Design the sequence.
């Protein structure tokens, strides 16, 4: 049960990653750090006595502008370049954020306590913290909202057009520069939502970013770009897998098993494709 | 050619006398040697082959753990050693220490090479960013998993055998310096001789267009695996020496330190100019001096500086120092440029 709820959160982050991967062809290593930053925003509101659930609204707004800032400073210079350059550049941002957060918020593991109780199901055999249900519901709402927005709005259409063919979109009068910035902003906002929810349901720590990046990358490569049901499903699958790995192998191997699973999935796909003499690229 | 010989001789002599001229910097110089080895080896696939790996740290950490484990395990029970305080009950005699270290280094070089060969076929079939992310995952996974294994110290770390005193002579710094310098010279000679063969041309062909290279009848997979194995060999050696030098191995902070060492080697090669022989060496030297300055004066802010540095280097110097020099003084690199053409280009700019 925990795994599925966790998976829904992962899927939200992964959707942001798929969005910018599809549109800008950039893999953002700093994705996880944006999530953690979003979490800290909610945590701060909690510290100042505001209910952390409001963080779900405030954090994406703040994160949207953070995302735009990062785009303007760094990403727009690497957008058309070699992929490796963008990976390395976002890696640099990731290290930078990690350390700045460490300075600003300290290296403690923190949790924004929402004060929600727990629900007992099936004659008390399953306990379910209400905060997790809240997180799952909110992330589903945001995911559906985003899909509708991408389908219906003008900006959503522009984003999809740019993803299909940036040059053609430009010729047809789409301001691709603006679309890129908006995409990055939306992605950061999604990370903000997910981060706020994570800080309510689990714990956050400045150095926990990279595993989230890897998880979302994994979900995207399993599900494929722009396949939302797939993203949700593989997110839940990953969540369940993690809970099992935690239970069977022990907590110290939890992160390790996630990274190992990534390697195994990539290798599996590589062998599957090599039968057709193709390769992942 | 003659100039080159003089240059090499000068560097060699400088390397041999450096620990006596700058006795206070012996450890720093040894670390510099290790950094140069790492950036040269990264350059073999990152620069020449076009396979940007974040995972070479895997071989480095593997070498580190193996060297220390063998050095201890040859004479004492390993599990008792790594229990807290165990290193105080067992003491290596000088003969045991050097014997163990020698065998440990050999193991540290050979096992990562074999590992690279074994996983090479699976991993090197990935291309572009899939390869980069996959190797990143590999490095982090290795760190996390080794942090959970009890016999090599798990989360509390592994203290390597302390350097024995021979009589009243305390030569720890010199010993590790000459070890790392010898490996550096070995690496340089090996890589230089490799770069003058057909092998390097094949690697470059893979970098420029792998499909075409394959269509020309080159067994690209074979060459890629060999290239990776060469890197792994020297990475393992460097790791083994570094383990002894630091004296303490922690799974995520020293051995599989993807956040520091794993990025450093990429950064150094890029800073100096990837795909050149001298680029990684120059890059590593500059980087090390810069880093030590920062680490000393801006304690606590080093990662912030590192993050900014990565972004700046990557955005503004993707070709590196050698690339910049090459653009500025093409004659020195044996490139002949038509004067008229050059003027036209300058005017265009």
Sequence:
């Amino acid at each position: 049960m925990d795994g599925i709820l966790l998976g829904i959160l992962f899927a939200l982050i992964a959707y942001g990653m798929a969005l910018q991967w599809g549109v800008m062809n950039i893999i953002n290593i700093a994705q996880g750090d944006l999530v953690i930053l979003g979490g800290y925003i909610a945590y701060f509101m909690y510290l100042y006595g505001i209910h952390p659930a409001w963080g779900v609204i405030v954090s994406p707004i703040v994160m949207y502008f953070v995302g735009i800032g990062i785009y303007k400073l760094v990403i727009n210079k690497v957008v058309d370049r070699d992929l490796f350059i963008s990976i390395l550049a976002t890696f640099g941002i990731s290290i930078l954020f990690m350390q700045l957060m460490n300075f600003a918020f300290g290296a403690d593991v923190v949790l924004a306590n929402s004060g929600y109780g727990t629900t007992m199901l099936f004659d008390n055999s399953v306990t379910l913290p209400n905060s997790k249900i809240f997180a799952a519901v909110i992330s589903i709402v945001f995911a559906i909202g985003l899909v509708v927005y991408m389908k219906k709005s003008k900006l959503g259409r522009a984003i999809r057009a740019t993803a299909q063919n940036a040059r053609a979109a430009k010729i047809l009068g789409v301001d691709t520069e603006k679309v890129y910035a908006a995409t990055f902003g939306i992605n950061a906002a999604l990370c903000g939502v997910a981060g706020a929810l994570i800080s309510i349901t689990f714990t956050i720590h400045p150095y926990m970013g990279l595993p989230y990046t890897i998880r979302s990358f994994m979900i995207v490569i399993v599900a494929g770009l722009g396949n939302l049901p797939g993203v949700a499903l593989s997110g839940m699958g990953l969540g369940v897998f993690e809970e099992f790995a935690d239970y069977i192998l022990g907590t110290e191997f939890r992160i390790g098993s996630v990274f190992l699973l990534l390697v195994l999935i990539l290798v599996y796909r590589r062998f599957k494709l090599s039968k057709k003499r193709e390769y992942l690229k | 050619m003659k100039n080159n010989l003089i240059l090499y001789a000068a560097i060699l002599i400088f390397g041999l006398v450096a620990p006596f001229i700058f006795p206070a910097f012996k450890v720093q110089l040894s670390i510099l040697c290790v950094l140069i080895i790492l950036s040269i080896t990264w350059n073999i696939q990152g620069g020449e082959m076009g396979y940007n790996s974040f995972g070479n740290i895997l071989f480095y950490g593997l070498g580190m753990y193996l060297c220390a484990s063998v050095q201890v395990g040859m004479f004492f029970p390993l599990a008792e050693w790594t229990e807290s305080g165990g290193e105080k009950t067992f003491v290596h005699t000088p003969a045991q220490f050097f014997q163990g270290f020698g065998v440990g280094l050999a193991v540290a070089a050979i096992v990562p090479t074999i590992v690279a060969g074994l996983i090479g076929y699976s991993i090197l079939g990935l291309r572009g960013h899939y390869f980069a992310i996959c190797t990143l995952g590999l490095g982090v996974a290795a760190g996390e998993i080794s942090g959970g294994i009890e016999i090599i110290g798990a989360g509390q770390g592994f203290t390597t055998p302390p350097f024995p005193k021979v009589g009243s002579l305390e030569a720890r710094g010199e010993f590790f310096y000459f070890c790392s310098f010898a490996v550096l010279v070995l690496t340089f000679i090996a890589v230089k001789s490799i770069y003058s063969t057909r092998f390097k041309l094949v690697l470059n062909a893979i970098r420029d267009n792998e499909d075409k290279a394959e269509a020309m009848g080159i067994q690209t997979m074979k060459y890629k695996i060999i290239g990776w194995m060469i890197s792994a060999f020297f990475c393992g050696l460097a790791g083994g020496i570094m383990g002894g030098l630091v004296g303490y191995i922690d799974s995520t902070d020293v051995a599989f330190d993807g956040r520091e060492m794993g990025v450093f080697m990429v950064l150094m090669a890029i800073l100096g100019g990837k795909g050149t022989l001298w680029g990684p060496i120059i890059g590593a030297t500059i980087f090390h001096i810069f880093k030590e300055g920062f680490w000393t004066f801006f304690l606590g802010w080093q990662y912030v500086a590192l993050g900014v540095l990565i972004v700046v280097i990557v955005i503004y110097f993707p070709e590196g120092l050698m690339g910049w020099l090459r653009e500025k003084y093409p004659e020195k690199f044996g490139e002949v440029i038509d004067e008229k053409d050059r003027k036209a280009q300058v005017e265009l700019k």
